[in-house]
Amino acid sequence: MQGTRRVKALCIGADVYTHLDPLDEAVKDARRMHRDLEGSSGCSSFLLANPSTRQSMLDILSSLAMDCQTKRPELMLVFYAGHAIQLSSGEIAMLTCDVVRPEMSEEQGWSVVTVADMLSAMAAGAENVEGLKYRASEIGQD
């Protein structure tokens, strides 16, 4: 149908953390958002519950972007419910379920995923998604 907005979404929920207090509703919220998006005309949504590692989050973002090479969406949406921290750089980072100490993860790049990380993973997966590489390289620069 012409004029129908095409949307690709990734809904992430993280409740069960190895070394942090668990959350009660994050996965439920992500499932609800996923279900609502899937029920919307022209929207395709993927669900990732309790991502165990940083790489698991980046891999699914890259896969989503690769899928966009053949079915280019008008909008790509990432929904996240879970623990997050503000890094010393000012960026907000999502924490994966394997995080031990968030402050050490920031220094080492473990168990945290920033917006710049997400854009870079998507750019790596979709060389032809217009403007994605440019925006990924500009995040965090003044």
From TrEMBL:
> Where do the TM regions start and end?
none
Alphabetized Gene3D superfamilies for the sequence: 3.40.50.1460
GO function terms (MF aspect): cysteine-type endopeptidase activity
Q: Sorted alphabetically, which SUPFAM superfamilies does this protein's record hold?
A: Caspase-like
Q: Which InterPro entries match?
A: Caspase-like_dom_sf (IPR029030), Pept_C14_caspase (IPR011600)
- What's a Pfam family this protein contains? Peptidase_C14
Q: Which GO terms describe its biological process?
A: proteolysis
* Domain spans labelled Peptidase C14 caspase: 7-93
Name of this chain's protein = Peptidase C14 caspase domain-containing protein
